[in-house]
Automatic annotation (TrEMBL):
Pfam families registered for this protein in UniProt: Glyco_hydro_1 (PF00232)
Reactions accelerated catalytically: Hydrolysis of terminal, non-reducing beta-D-glucosyl residues with release of beta-D-glucose
Segments forming a coiled coil: none
EC number from the UniProt entry: 3.2.1.21
Spans annotated as Disordered: 37-59, 443-465
PANTHER family reported for this sequence: GLYCOSYL HYDROLASE, LP05116P
Record InterPro entries: GH (IPR017853), GH_1_N_CS (IPR033132), Glyco_hydro_1 (IPR001360), Glyco_hydro_1_beta-glucosidase (IPR017736)
Keyword list, A-Z: Carbohydrate metabolism, Cellulose degradation, Glycosidase, Hydrolase, Polysaccharide degradation
A molecular function (GO) term: beta-galactosidase activity
EC category name: hydrolase
UniProt protein name: Beta-glucosidase
Recorded family membership: Belongs to the glycosyl hydrolase 1 family.
UniProt xrefs under SUPFAM superfamilies: (Trans)glycosidases (SSF51445)
Length: 465
């Protein structure tokens, strides 16, 4: 019964499907000055007046650093099988270099052990935007050296925690750092410099590849891959001009990252558009693309919205939006992007590491939070993911963004993306209706699993809607 609307019959997900939820360090941890943590670019940025809504910062956030045990219990109660979180670089290397800070490592060791104790598989992201400020002071991602510093940090984390983490993700959404951090400037470090932006893109890709090499060098058999937010780009109208504009837009949104990782080349149309004098083009050295395209074990896809591109290269909204004005609710885009990745890049194992929306959640007088919009959104996106799997996409797991309400970057705490409501003044956690719905989806998938040794007709578990 678990995906409970629509005329269609049961949706069967594989027995071992990784039902999950996602978070990131700066957005939930708080404890900004504890146990030797250094400053990150988001500490700096969020303190600049006018940069975040209401001047919000991640100083306290959802206080997860102190409440992680309670949050682990919540995850167990929801029945999660996978938890995707990030490690804060400035907790491990307060200045971005040098010997790791043991107290920072210890926190993640406790978290990871707590996941295993509850039967939840850890999926750890190494970089979810909280660059140590000391590295930003040394030119941040504009400097090629930062990619090498990232590999050193990754190596320290792999050596300390690698035995307990079966899946690593390198860089979360390099595109968002490029676009929001360096083009639009509404994320840290708040720049508006197109020429720097694409050099940053190259260095983020290089950092990813160097981290993959670093993991392999430890002899680990854990899996590793990047986390990309992919946006299907459609022409907004039926004209050759709109088709061409959408194609180039797709280059900047998707192929810049996918092609370099999976084909070992940057897309020619994007390079031509940037021009030979761009800092990015000048910054690509012999051998870089071989590093960037080192074989990966899985590709993490984050899907939120499609983009409709007009003939003049602008964009249009076609579908209902959410509390996030950039989002259009279009579940079919999930199907399109997943099938496209498999078609164009081959049958690489995929995980969805983020999908969700912010809804105007308030706690009712009876203490419940009725987020029907989130249930409908997740139901429709899961159905689209399921159809992609039926069409041959090797999708292993699905992580709702987000487990908890949290610090949504420039939007501060106004947008609520969680399955779990956080009452910030008291830090009390309240399961929203979507959380209990998701719990029943997971539980039904588990209960309909055939007993051990007796596989179902197609070896899969059944979930219906
Ligand atoms: C993604 C980010 C994540 C969160 C969601 C809403 O781009 O990776 O941290 O902000 O959007």
């Amino acid at each position: 019964m678990s995906i409970p609307t629509g005329p269609a019959g049961p949706l069967r997900f594989p027995d071992n499907f990784g039902w999950g939820a996602a978070t990131s360090a700066y957005q939930i941890e708080g404890a900004a000055k504890e146990d030797g943590r250094g400053e990150s670019v988001w500490d700096t940025f969020s303190r600049v007046p006018g940069r975040t809504r209401n001047g919000d910062t991640g100083d306290v956030a959802a206080d997860h650093y102190h409440r992680y045990a309670e949050d682990l219990d919540l995850m167990r109660d929801l029945g999660l099988r996978s938890y995707r979180f990030s490690i804060s670089w400035p907790r491990i290397q307060p200045d971005g270099t040098g010997a790791p800070n043991q107290r920072g490592l210890d926190f993640y060791r406790r978290l990871i052990d707590g996941l295993h104790d509850r039967g939840i598989s850890p999926m750890a992201t190494l970089f979810h935007w909280d660059l140590p400020q000391a590295l930003q002071d040394a030119e941040g991602w504009e400097s090629r050296d930062t990619a090498y510093r990232f590999a050193d940090y990754a190596d320290a984390v792999f050596r300390a925690l690698g035995d307990r983490v079966p899946a690593w993700l390198t860089i979360n959404e390099p595109k968002t750092v490029v676009q929001n951090g360096y083009l639009i400037g509404h994320h840290a470090p708040g720049r508006q410099d197109p020429d720097a932006a694409y050099l940053v893109a190259h260095h983020l890709q290089l950092a990813h590849g160097l981290a993959v090499d670093a993991l392999r060098a430890t002899g680990s058999d854990s899996r590793i891959g990047p986390a990309l937010n992919l946006h299907p780009c459609y022409p907004a109208e039926d004209s050759p001009q709109a088709a061409a504009a959408a194609r180039l837009y797709d280059g900047y949104e998707n192929r810049l990252y996918l092609d370099s990782l999976l084909k070992g080349s940057y897309p020619a149309d994007v390079l031509a558009d940037l021009g030979p004098r761009s800092r990015m083009v000048q910054g690509i050295r012999d051998g870089d693309l071989a590093i960037i395209s080192a074989p990966i074990d899985l590709l993490a896809v984050q899907y939120y919205t499609p983009i409709y591109v007009t003939a003049d290269g602008g964009t249009e909204h076609r579908w209902a939006t959410s509390e996030a004005e950039w989002q259009q609710i279009y579940p079919e885009g999930m199907y399109d992007i997943l099938t496209r990745v498999t078609r164009d890049y081959g049958p690489i194992p995929l995980t969805i590491t983020e999908n969700g929306l912010p809804t105007p959640d308030t706690m009712g007088p009876d203490g419940t939070v009725d987020d029907a919009g989130r249930i409908a959104f997740l139901r429709d996106h899961l159905a689209a993911a399921h159809r992609a799997m039926a069409a041959g996409v090797p999708l292993e797991s699905f992580h709702v963004w987000s487990l908890l309400d949290n610090f949504e970057w420039a939007e501060g705490y106004d947008q609520r993306w969680g399955l779990v409501y956080v009452d910030y003044p008291s830090q009390r956690r309240v399961l929203k209706k979507s959380a209990t719905w998701y719990r029943s989806v997971i539980a039904d998938a588990a209960s309909e699993r055939p007993p051990p040794g007796q596989p179902g007709p197609d070896g899969s578990a059944s979930v219906s809607r």
